[in-house]
Every structure is written in C-alpha cells, then in structure tokens.
Amino acid sequence: MDKNERQILLTPGPLTTSTTTREAMLRDWGSRDGEFIAMTARVRERLAALAGAANSHVCIPLQGSGTFAIEATLGTLVPAAASGKLLVLINGAYGRRMARICDILARAYVTFETPEDVPPTAAEIADVLAADGAITHVAAVHCETTSGILNPIEDIAAVVADAGRALIVDAMSSFGALPLDAGTIPLTALAASANKCLEGAPGMAFAIIEKEALAAAAGNAPSLSLDLHDQWRVMEDTGQWRFPPPVQVIAALDQALAEHQAEGGIEARAARYGRNRRVLVDGLRDIGFETFLPDALQAPIIVTVRMPGDPEFSFDRFYDLLHGQGIVIYPGSVTIEPTFRIGCIGRIDEDDMRRALAAIRDALDEMGIAKDGLAPAS
Ligand SMILES: *Cc1c(COP(=O)(O)O)cnc(C)c1O
Question: What is the pLDDT, as a whole number, of residue 291?
Fold first, then answer.
C-alpha cells in the first residue's frame, strides 16, 4: 500500500491519526534539549488539565504501551501484601489483566466479577468493601474495551470514597473522549495512553496520580523502570525522563493535544465519536447485524457485533475483504459468544463510517451472505 494512502483503523488502537500529528514526528530531538524538556512539561500539564487535576494531581509519563502504565500504577501505589490489598472490578479482559498483574507483582487482591455485559453496581461494591476492611485500593476500568461497555465510574468513585479507600481507574480507552474529572470525582489515580482517544502515536502512556498518594509511595514499586515515584522525582528535579524517552511519540502527542483542544476538547471529541457510533450502529442494524450490548451500556468507543450464524460467513475472509478497501476491523474478545469489534475512535468521522458500511455491504455480497444469514447462531 502507498505510504500516503489513508488507512481507516476501526480498532481499539493504534488508531487513525491526523497527517499533522504524524508529521510532528519528522525531526530529531535530543532528550536533554531545552526545547524537548519544555515539550515534556507542556504535555504533562495538558494531560493533567484534561483530567481536571492540575493542582491536586501530577501527570507522570512512561515509555511503553498502556499496559506498562497500568502495571506501573498498581506496583507504585498498592503496597506489598501485609499493608495493601486491591479489589479489582472485572467485566472483561482488561479487568482480568489487572488481576494478573497483581499475581505477578505479588500484591494481595480480591476480585468482584460481573458478566461482560453487566456493570457492577455501587451497592455491590459497598458490600464487598464493608465485608473486607483489609482492602486499601479499588481498581476499575472506565470503558471495558473488551465489549465496549461503559462502567458507572462516578457511582464507583463515590462508593469507594465513602468507604475511605483509594480508587485507581484504567481510563485507557476513554481518556480524552469521556469526561473523568478528578476535580469533581474522587480518584487517586488514572492511567491512559497516547494512542487511543487522544489520537497520538503509540509508544507512550501516563498516569495521573494524587500528589499525596504518590509522595507516600516511595519504595513501593517492585520494578526500577516501572517505578512512577522515581520517574516523578527525577522529572520534577531535572525536567528529564529517567531513561531515553520516545521523543517523536511525545512530539506527536504534543501536536495531537493541540488538535484535541482546537477541536473543542473532551466535549467535542465525545460528540464526534458519538456521531460515529450512531452512524455505525444504525448502519450495522440496517444491514442485519446485531450488537452485543444494549444501547444504554454502549460507550462511543468500540462496538461489539454478534458473529453471523451463516456457515458461509468467515471472519478472516470478511477481515481481508475490508482490509483490501483500507478498512481495518478487530476480532472479538468477549468470552460469552463469538463476536467481532468495530471502533468509533481515532481521526475519523461519519463519512468514514459510511465508507466502512459500504465496504461491509460489498464484502457480504462478495461472500454471498444474505440479510437473514446475519442473525447470530443461537
Ligand atoms: C487498550 C487498553 C489497555 C491496554 O493498553 P495497551 O496500550 O494495549 O497496552 C488497558 N485497558 C483498556 C481499557 C484498554 O482499552
């Protein structure tokens, strides 16, 4: 494919980015350069401001994908067993991944799991916290990208704060598009990355952590490179990253954040993704597909589609036919039933969604699948 041809990535990330964001990566920066140090500071301030957390919290950027920031946040904030215990709320793969991280880091934890199409309720969480006084922290996923379900983060935050515990939010697939304001919602930390709703390039993630909690976390981390307290301390002292930063990725995020602001911030991005979702879901239903989640639980991030029951339907073939038209979709990851996923996020709009729907119709024609073949096998 031509390097200038636009790919429409309807995935959970990396995503379609603007040409200007990609162009921001065309030069070299020395990591100790004054200009680069100023860029890091600007990116950190903008990210903290997006979380409504400019005074109470700090943004600590970290090399790597989103999982690195989740692992670093849990390892830095949750003390070793004996003094710390995490409650992990699970309704998908990313909740399960946090439990796995606790296993590997040897952090004490319990889980509260609901089915992949069911959010936990505040009452259920209150019961778990009341029954176990040893729990110090609660980890929740804002939008569980496994299904695309929106978890009730305000309710969760309120009940966790009432119980006097600390909340850590995996905001990976929502940050920048769904409001999560640390000024109004009690939250100790959130983690997200550059290449989802912020529409930057992959390679950098970050955590936004309450200053007091971070200051108290010295020496907790069971890792050198994933120690956010140390990363923060060095960055505050020198303005520099501890280890070589992904300079081009930070430059791209700096540009992507400027474009986020120019678009109208979180509200405007939420509105655009919401329009993408509307066009996508209406179009898919019109064609004959069924969505996995009811509309009330569906975040404007990624849509899980039930796999058609027609034995002639092959996801791999469908994927290849769409790919041939510059449209990239994603396999499913819910465990309850066979599905695939189509994202609404990235630098894409309703016209791109209509193009994707036209490509989907073409692919179904090519495969010889009629409308009644799209109902899921029961
Ligand atoms: C993508 C994602 C992650 C992991 O981020 P990676 O960049 O894939 O490592 C974690 N949680 C959620 C909710 C995500 O969507």
Answer: 97
